[in-house]
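User: I'm putting together notes for a lab meeting next week and I want to include a structural view of one of the chains we've been expressing. I don't have a solved structure, so I'd like a prediction I can at least talk through. The sequence is below, exactly as it appears in our construct file.
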Amino acid sequence: TKLILLSVISVFANFLSAFSGGGAGLIQLPLLIFIGLPFLNALATHKLASVALGLGASFRHIKEKTVRPKMSLLIICFGIPGVILGANTVIIIPSNYSTLFLGLLTLFIALYSLKLNKIENLGLKKKLTKRKLYIGCVVLFLIGFLNGSLTSGTGLFVTLWLVRWFGLSYKDSIAYTLVLVGVVWNATGAIILGTISNIKWEWIPVLISGSFIGGYLGAH
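Assistant: Thanks for the context. Below is the predicted structure for the 220-residue chain, given as structure tokens.
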């Protein structure tokens, strides 16, 4: 019964995530905790499975050639150190506090979403000064920290930040998020967390297949 539930939820969550540019963790991670996994184990298991979402979506977006080297390098160089720091920080935080912070982050995203009726100036290229570029990179580092520690909703943060600050189109921002956050950031977090916590390996095939299928369909 658990495997059937995990399969259905995984496809659904990752379909929505690929469609909207993030958010699988808002559904999948709390579900893993709800059905009995400790926070760190659930986080490591979810991160490993989420890599498949990125791979599933990558096939579609790389074919469309929407992911370009310069922006990709920016997201990797400033996001990965944040992910590493976040993953090493969450290790030392008690599980009950981590779960509380996850709930507060989810609540914040819910309240923010109620106010977000539309994203303005889609695809409007903005001139980036050095100051704006520095701020943009610092925020990517902070989102990377959240990705490594709580993970939930950070893909959405990256997508919205790329649109609002860097002036990318919503479609292009989703591509960067799914390919770079979904694969590179999440793989980094999964490696770090997987070495210090127990991944629920018997659930991984179901979660990965759901992530891959949902990711490809949502990107398509």
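A couple of points you could mention at the meeting. The CA atoms of residues 29 and 183 lie 17 Å apart. The chain is about 80% helix and 0% strand.

User: Perfect, that's what I needed.
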